Amino acid sequence: MTEALHWIGGGLVVIGSLLTLFGAVGVLRFPDVYTRIHAASLTDTGGATLALLGLGLISGLTPETLKLAFIWAFVMLTTPAAANALANAAYGSGHKPRIGAFQIIPSDAPRETDPEDADRSSSQ
Amino acid sequence: MTYLLGLVMALTVAWFALSGQTAPQFLVLAAVSVLLSVWIAARFKIIDRDSSPYHRAPQLTLYTGWLLVEIVKSNVAVIARVWGPRHDIDPAMVSLRTNATTDLGKALFANSITLTPGTVTVDVEGDRLKVHALMREKASPASFEAMDRRAAGAADARKRER
């Protein structure tokens, strides 16, 4: 039983590391700061959760498991603050995205068909 | 005062759970660290209802479970974009209105959006949120409705009755 849990836990750690790697690939492939934040959030959510879950399975029901749960809770509480600060700083300093419609779509107005081209020509 | 006692209790339990020490010299350190943390929290004036949401613990736990499912779903979606064709993304910025009335509810909603890969809260002003989304179809206000309703329900349903 413990043997099986060790294998499952190890597998989860490997999958979590892969998700972290995918997040890094996304940071390299996506074009600008806003889209890269989305890629980076793969590492904080999927990667960290799976790796910590795997470590919890490996350690079994010990005080270490509780510490891992605390780490997970703190990661979940603090990383959105960091991502939010990054996005807010980029937006507040007037950083323009490379692609995509950047004018704010109001929640109640109907959306334009394709504001992307007009937006791009005006920003260059 | 109740919130102060609650904070002292929570910190003490956390200290014992994390250290597992009972020797007297460690207990002195525990008392010092708990009192120091409480003093700092008091100096920040953050000992109030919003910062100790133990009364909402069951609802918040349920909400966390629901949020985890959403995070898994959007993780898969973003991974598909990461490995997809280079410009198969269509980012957009959207302005939302939230139903949450307390700071706790707004913070929970904004942080849930940020935690879900593919969407990031850029700004919160009053009951309006600016959200950046990786995919435009994920950025329609309707797609945030369920999350907003659940976050507001988890964080401040009882507050509204007062």
Output the keywords:
heterodimer; A: about 120 residues; mainly alpha; disordered C terminus; B: about 160 residues; 2 domains; three-stranded antiparallel beta sheet; 5 helices; 3 strands; about 60% helix; elongated
In short:
The complex is a heterodimer of chains A (about 120) and B (about 160). With about 120 residues, chain A is mainly α.
Give a structural overview.
The complex is a heterodimer of chains A (124) and B (162). Chain A has 124 residues and is mainly alpha-helical. Chain A is built from 4 helices and 1 strand; from the N terminus they run αααβα. In chain A, α1 packs antiparallel against α2 and α2 runs antiparallel to α3. Chain B has 162 residues and is mainly alpha-helical. Chain B folds into 2 domains: 42 residues, no CATH class; 106 residues, no CATH class. Chain B contains 5 helices and 3 strands. In chain B, a hairpin with a 2-residue loop joins β2 and β3. In chain B, α3 packs antiparallel against α5.
- Helix fraction of chain A by DSSP (H/I, runs of at least 4): over 70%
Extract low-pLDDT stretches of chain B.
none
The profile of the biggest β sheet of chain B is: 3 strands, antiparallel
Estimate percent helicity of chain B: 55-70%
Strand order of the largest sheet of chain B: 1-3-2
Structural class of chain A: mainly alpha
The outline of chain B comes out as elongated
Q: In oligomeric terms, what are we looking at? A: heterodimer
Q: Report the average pLDDT across residues of chain B.
A: 82
Largest sheet entry of chain A: none
Tally of domains of chain B? 2
Distance between the termini of chain A: 62 Å
In total, the number of strands of chain A is: 1
CA distance, first residue to last residue of chain B:
20 Å
Helices and strands of chain B, in N-to-C order?
Answer: HHHEHEEH
The proportion of residues in beta strands of chain B is 5-15%
The overall average pLDDT of chain A, rounded, is 80
Give the topology, please.
The complex is a heterodimer of chains A (124) and B (162).
Chain A: H1 2-29, H2 33-59, H3 63-92, E1 101-105, H4 116-123
Chain B: H1 2-19, H2 24-43, H3 57-83, E1 92-97, H4 103-115, E2 119-125, E3 128-133, H5 141-161
Antiparallel strand pairs in B: 1-3, 2-3
Helix pairs in contact in B: 1-2, 3-5, 4-5
